[in-house]
């Protein structure tokens, strides 16, 4: 309010001074220099007074007090565990725990899902194996009709004799020695629960002359198990898988045996040997060996996948020799269920042994399953230790078995009535 009059006075003073400088005479109404100076000092004081009232500077005490209050609040937060940095770290840790928890839950869910899928795949494989086995064994109408009409009865053991199209004379020599024929074979099945069959697939030309010859032989003897398998020496591992899968589908037995058609077998002694291991659900019985892995091409028993067994000169894992071995029902079922994913090596006995690696299987090494031909098996028989099976290691079977198996049967056999008096 005081500034406006003061400004007008200043303007008049300035005008007066400019007139004086130009030589003009001032009027009488002009204020004297003393009053001008007083007015200037008053104007300055009035300006200072106005400025101090309009722009009040905050007290330093308030600033200090505010800063102190903020620090106190921070200290309080820290003492209570609520430091912003701490809270941030806690939030990060909490978020990390949440993420880890979610990942763990997801991983557990994936494992559960994988397990469910594996179970379903096993069930599907089992169903597929059963269906394929029944279809492939359609020629065995007698066995299938018996199973379908009276229900699946329990058998003690199934003996599958591995044979080939060219082995007709070997089969006849087996029929003439240790394998019962006709009514005696049927009686063996009904009274003792022992199934014996020659095991063979079909030729590359399905329905050809080789297949027709087997069909005629089967019509005469009725002792074949036909497989959905193409015959071939290099396909023995696949044939072994198919045999066990088919046998499990047709007969519910305690044991399943594979034997070659140039090996002599004492059935009663075999049954007594297996009966000792009936309580073990997963048993693998045979003459266990660990032969060298042959990497050289062109030699017998060459192993194309030799590099899987380590350095040159290494040996195979323990497995039963292929002339004769027996496995329990659980292991035969395992092969049936997983036959589509079980790896096949060049040698079928190695393949079988590899399928049981990693499983809780009891390996039984019984040397009576691999006796030599006379005089070895004869001396043991005279000592009361009758052999289960006899053959020549040098021939992987009885050398010239068609001519010699009758002699082996006479000198090392347990007697034709042994199987009927034996209790399994």
From TrEMBL:
Entry keywords, A to Z: Glycosyltransferase, Golgi apparatus, Manganese, Membrane, Signal-anchor, Transferase, Transmembrane, Transmembrane helix
E.C. code: 2.4.1.-
Pathway: Protein modification; protein glycosylation
Domain of life according to the entry: Eukaryota
Keyword presence, Transcription: no
Residues in DUF4094 domain copies: 32-129
Subcellular location: Golgi apparatus membrane
GO cellular component: Golgi membrane
Pfam families referenced in this protein's UniProt entry, alphabetically: DUF4094 (PF13334), Galactosyl_T (PF01762)
InterPro entries (UniProt xref): DUF4094, Glyco_trans_31
Keyword Amino-acid biosynthesis assigned: no
Family per similarity comment: Belongs to the glycosyltransferase 31 family.
GO molecular function: galactosyltransferase activity
Needed cofactors: Mn(2+)
Major place of residence: Golgi
Recorded topology in the membrane: Single-pass type II membrane protein
Taxonomic source organism: Nyssa sinensis
Protein name (database record): Hexosyltransferase
């Amino acid at each position: 309010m005081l500034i406006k009059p003061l400004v007008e006075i200043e303007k008049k003073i300035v005008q007066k001074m400019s007139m004086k400088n130009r030589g003009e005479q001032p009027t009488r109404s002009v204020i004297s220099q003393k009053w001008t100076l007083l007015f200037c000092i008053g104007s300055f004081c009035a300006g200072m007074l106005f400025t101090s009232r309009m722009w009040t500077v905050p007290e330093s005490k308030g600033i200090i007090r505010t800063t102190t209050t903020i620090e106190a609040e921070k200290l309080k937060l820290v003492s209570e565990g609520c430091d912003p940095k701490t809270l941030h770290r806690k939030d990060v840790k909490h978020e990390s725990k949440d993420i880890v928890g979610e990942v763990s839950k997801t991983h557990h869910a994936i494992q559960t899902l994988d397990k469910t899928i594996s179970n379903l795949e096993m069930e599907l494989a089992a169903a597929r194996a059963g269906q394929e086995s029944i279809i492939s064994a359609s020629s065995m109408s007698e066995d299938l009709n018996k199973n379908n009409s009276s229900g699946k009865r329990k058998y003690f053991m199934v003996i599958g004799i591995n044979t080939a199209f060219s082995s007709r004379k070997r089969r006849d020599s087996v029929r003439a020695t240790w394998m019962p024929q006709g009514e005696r074979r049927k009686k063996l099945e009904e009274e003792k629960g022992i199934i014996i069959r020659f095991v063979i697939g079909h030729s590359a030309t399905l329905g050809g002359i080789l297949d027709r010859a087997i069909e005629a032989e089967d019509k005469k003897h009725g002792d074949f198990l036909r497989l959905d398998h193409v015959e071939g020496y290099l396909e023995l591992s696949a044939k072994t898988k198919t045999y066990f899968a088919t046998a499990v589908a047709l007969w519910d037995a305690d044991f399943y045996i594979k034997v070659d058609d140039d090996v002599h077998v004492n059935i009663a002694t075999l049954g007594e040997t297996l009966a000792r291991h009936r309580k073990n659900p997963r048993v693998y019985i045979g003459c266990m060996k660990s032969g060298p892995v042959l990497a050289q091409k062109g030699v017998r028993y060459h192993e194309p996948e030799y590099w899987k067994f380590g350095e040159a000169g290494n040996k195979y894992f323990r497995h039963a020799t292929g002339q004769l071995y027996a496995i329990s029902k659980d292991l035969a079922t395992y092969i049936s269920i997983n036959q589509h994913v079980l790896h096949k090596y060049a040698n079928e006995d190695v393949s079988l042994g590899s399928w049981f690696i990693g499983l809780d299987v009891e390996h039984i090494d019984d040397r009576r399953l691999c006796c030599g031909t006379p005089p070895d098996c004869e001396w043991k028989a005279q000592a009361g230790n009758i052999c289960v099976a006899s053959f020549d290691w040098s021939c992987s079977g009885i050398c010239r078995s068609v001519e010699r198996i009758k002699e082996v049967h006479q000198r090392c056999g347990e007697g034709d009535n042994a199987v009927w008096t034996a209790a399994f």
